[in-house]
């Protein structure tokens, strides 16, 4: 006997193969009730009333085997039990595992509360006792010789069913099995289509985000070039002209202007390459940038509770994380009108950096990403390194949190 497949049916000798004449009309109405039903629950509920006409029950359920071999939740009518809330489960935990594995071609019991076939270590039999399910009939749903699930009918009364009831249940199961198989395959196709669509959406979003980030980086390079040309090079050119004039040298003034040029160059270099990360570490680099970005009179705080975890990240991930924090700090400094800006670095349960202020909140077009710029670039950078970015903004302030699920020292 193969797993989940009936190769022999020793009990069928006791069963009448022909459909009894009175049952035909019920089966016809069941078939008609199934038409147009697109989900398992509505399908089983649509036929339940007709089944009750010739096979009275207190509880009726249908369970299905998934393609991965697990058992889906029971689709119930009559009463609601824990079987219907269980979700996917192992076949081994089902009280009717012998039926689902093809060991029996039906199960009939006068009292399931006492029948040892339903009670073994690991069996989920609580609903049997919780609801007093005694007499039970179980028949497999079979398509092409393969068991795809089971139909179960239960009564609160003991010894309520016999062999003729098993035969009737089998006729119902044979009728509805192809329909349930089609629903299962349709659901599987829908699920696969949803997964594929979500994957494509993520890929397209990441691709578009990468394009936006590339565009932003190109704009940043142009800005740096213009800063060097329009400011630093212009200042140096004026210095050279002044120095070339006889008798016009003022050493103190020249030194002051050179100091300004050096400061401008340092600012441009720090913006382009955050070398301070390598020299002094992540927390110190965050503090330096916070001091530069915060407005005059703004109280700043940096707390590193991670034991230096960001400095154990892959360099590419660390720089991307620093850029996200930079942008969040810039937004707080430019838009929040805050009296306090704080940064907290936490290492447990995962590496998380939170930037919070007590300002007026971000403009809606920035917060919702309607305007290209910092916030959308932050989200793209977070996606590229597998980080999660969350933003909360309101009248009492803004909190930006970026968390990494990877192990320090590796890219997530």
TrEMBL record:
PANTHER family: NITRATE/NITRITE SENSOR PROTEIN NARX-RELATED (PTHR24421), NITRATE_NITRITE SENSOR PROTEIN NARQ (PTHR24421:SF10). This is histidine kinase. Gene3D superfamilies: 3.30.450.40, Histidine kinase-like ATPase, C-terminal domain. GO terms for molecular function: ATP binding. Its EC number is 2.7.13.3. CDD domains: HATPase_UhpB-NarQ-NarX-like. It catalyses: ATP + protein L-histidine = ADP + protein N-phospho-L-histidine. It is an enzyme of class 2 (transferase). Keywords: ATP-binding, Kinase, Nucleotide-binding, Transferase, Two-component regulatory system. Pfam families: GAF_2, HATPase_c. Coiled coil: none annotated. Residues 39-190 form the GAF domain. InterPro entries: GAF, GAF-like_dom_sf, HATPase_C_sf, HATPase_dom, Sensor_HK_TwoCompSys. It comes from the Bacteria. Residues 316-408 form the Histidine kinase/HSP90-like ATPase domain.
């Amino acid at each position: 006997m193969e797993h989940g497949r009936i190769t022999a049916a020793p009990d069928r000798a006791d069963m009448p193969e022909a459909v009894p004449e009175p049952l035909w009309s019920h089966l016809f109405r069941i078939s008609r009730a199934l038409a147009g039903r697109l989900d398992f629950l509505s399908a089983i509920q649509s036929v339940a009333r007709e089944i009750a006409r010739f096979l009275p029950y207190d509880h009726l359920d249908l369970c299905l085997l998934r393609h991965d071999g697990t058992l889906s939740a029971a689709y119930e009518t009559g009463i609601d039990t824990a079987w219907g809330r269980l979700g996917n489960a192992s076949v081994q935990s089902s009280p009717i595992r012998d039926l689902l594995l093809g060991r029996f071609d039906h199960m009939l019991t006068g009292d399931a509360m006492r029948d040892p076939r339903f009670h073994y270590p690991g069996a989920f039999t609580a609903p049997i006792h919780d609801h007093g399910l005694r007499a039970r009939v179980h028949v497999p749903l079979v398509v092409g010789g393969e068991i795809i699930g089971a139909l179960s009918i239960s009564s609160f009364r003991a010894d309520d069913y016999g062999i003729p009831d098993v035969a009737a249940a089998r006729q119902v199961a044979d009728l509805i099995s192809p329909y349930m198989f089609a629903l299962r395959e349709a659901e599987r196709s829908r699920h696969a289509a949803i997964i594929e669509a979500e994957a494509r959406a993520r890929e397209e979003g990441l691709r578009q985000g990468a394009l936006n980030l590339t565009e932003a980086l190109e704009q940043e390079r142009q800005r740096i070039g213009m800063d060097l040309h329009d400011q630093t090079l212009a200042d140096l050119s004026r210095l050279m002209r002044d120095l070339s004039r006889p008798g016009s040298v003022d050493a103190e003034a020249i030194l002051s202007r050179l100091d300004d040029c050096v400061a401008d160059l340092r600012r441009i270099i720090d913006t382009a390459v955050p070398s301070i990360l390598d020299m002094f570490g992540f927390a110190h680099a965050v503090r330096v940038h916070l001091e530069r970005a915060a407005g005059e009179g703004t109280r700043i705080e940096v707390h590193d509770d991670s034991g230096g975890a960001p400095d154990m990240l892959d360099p590419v991930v660390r720089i991307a994380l620093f850029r996200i924090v930079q942008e969040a700090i810039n937004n707080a400094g430019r838009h929040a009108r805050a009296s306090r800006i704080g940064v907290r670095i936490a290492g447990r349960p995962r590496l998380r950096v939170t930037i919070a202020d007590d300002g007026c909140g971000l403009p809606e077009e920035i917060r919702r990403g309607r305007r290209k710029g910092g916030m959308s670039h932050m989200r793209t950078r977070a996606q590229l390194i597998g980080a999660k970015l969350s933003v909360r903004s309101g009248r009492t302030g803004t909190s930006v949190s970026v968390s990494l699920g990877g192990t320090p020292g590796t890219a997530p």
